[in-house]
């Protein structure tokens, strides 16, 4: 079709012009000399090849100059280019031919020569460029989505990475003080620490089963109990209905770690993780000292790194429109609640 189409294009323009001309003059071009008709068709075929070749060169020029610009201004310039190109090519090939045959060049011949091929040229342009623009639009959308996803993925990795320094510092600090009092307990703590670290290093790229997350929290709590006050009163409830549900990892950790960090007063910590109406609900309460540390909205921790603002941003990226999160002080307790709506 690459080689045949220009000839068909030229012949289509020629026969359309002949039919319009014959309808005005009353002639019948099939009654003329076939040598004359053949010569006119040969000129029309040459005109078709010339126009398609020049059109492709013109569009290649526009594509190179305005590679990623699909504005109205560009389309207007392309249409003007097609119009001028058509005007030149048609008058080079067809105007002299008509002037030297039959009864010479008449006004209606000039109108037909410049109108009919222009109509076909615009139709051809519309079909070709609409396909090209649609493909370019799809490619741009895919590229934009890829850039957006890469940016979000980078941000998520950065947010997750912020947990590690804080977690390492607390765990190593605990082990350091245990070494002086109980070497056996310190070894056990190292084993717990290794399990927790392994989970953080290898299980964060995809969603995990809720049972894995519960197991991780229990190990983390066991590690925190070692360095907590003997006055600690811990109440845990994990719903047995939670088995195969998939969640993104380490979303509950900031709330648990925050509770252990700021616990005081009565040293009461209550944690509840349950399934209700197909959603996952996480509640955690911890008593705070009578003289509470400074709390600024959701950003309880002033250090850079782990914080509830970090958690909230992760929730916005991982569960857009599918989560509810609240945290704040209520009657000498810090209360945090998180609801995750699972995809069906």
Key terms:
single chain; kinase; Heat Shock Protein 90; transferase; 2 domains; transmembrane; alpha+beta; membrane; phosphorelay sensor kinase activity; 7 strands
Question: Would you write up a description of this structure?
Answer:
The protein is of the alpha+beta class and 344 residues long. The protein folds into 2 domains: 5-149, no CATH class; 162-341, Histidine kinase-like ATPase, C-terminal domain (Heat Shock Protein 90, 2-Layer Sandwich), CATH 3.30.565.10. Helices cover 62% and strands 13% of the residues. It has 10 helices and 7 strands. It has helices at residues 5-25, 34-65, 72-93, 95-99, 107-161, 163-181, 183-202, 210-226, 253-262, 308-318; strands at residues 208-209, 233-238, 246-247, 268-276, 279-287, 323-329, 333-341. A 5-stranded mixed beta sheet has the order 2-4-5-7-6, with helices on one face. It starts with a helix and ends with a strand.
């Amino acid at each position: 079709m690459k080689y045949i189409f220009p000839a068909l294009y030229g012949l289509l323009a020629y026969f359309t012009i002949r039919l319009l001309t014959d309808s005005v003059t009353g002639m019948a071009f099939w009654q003329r000399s076939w040598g004359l008709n053949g010569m006119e068709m040969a000129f029309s075929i040459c005109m078709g090849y010339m126009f398609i070749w020049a059109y492709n060169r013109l569009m290649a020029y526009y594509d190179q100059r305005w590679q990623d610009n699909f504005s109205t201004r560009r389309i207007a310039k392309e249409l003007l280019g097609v119009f001028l190109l058509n005007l030149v090519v048609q008058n080079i090939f067809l105007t002299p031919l008509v002037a030297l045959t039959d009864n010479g060049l008449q006004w209606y011949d000039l109108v037909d020569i410049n109108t009919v091929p222009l109509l076909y040229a615009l139709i051809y342009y519309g079909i070709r460029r609409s396909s090209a623009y649609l493909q370019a639009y799809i490619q741009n959308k895919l590229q934009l989505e890829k850039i957006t996803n890469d940016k979000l993925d980078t941000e998520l990795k950065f947010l997750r990475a912020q947990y590690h320094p804080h977690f390492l510092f607390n765990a190593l600090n605990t082990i350091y003080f245990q070494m002086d009092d109980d070497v056996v307990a310190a070894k056990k703590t190292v084993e717990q620490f290794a399990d927790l670290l392994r989970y953080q290093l290898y299980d964060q790229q995809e969603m995990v089963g809720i049972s894995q997350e519960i197991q991780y929290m229990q190990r983390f709590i066991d590690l925190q109990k070692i360095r907590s006050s003997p006055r600690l009163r811990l109440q845990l409830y994990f719903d047995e209905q939670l088995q195969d549900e998939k969640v993104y990892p380490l979303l509950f950790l900031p709330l648990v770690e925050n509770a252990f960090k700021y616990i005081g007063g009565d040293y009461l910590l209550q944690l509840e993780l349950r399934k209700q109406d197909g959603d996952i609900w996480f509640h955690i309460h911890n008593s705070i000292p009578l003289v509470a540390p400074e709390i600024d909205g959701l950003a309880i921790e002033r250090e850079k790194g782990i914080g509830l603002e970090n958690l909230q941003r992760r929730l916005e990226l991982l569960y857009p429109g599918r989560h509810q999160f609240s945290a704040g002080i209520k009657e000498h307790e810090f209360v945090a609640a998180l609801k995750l709506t699972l995809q069906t």
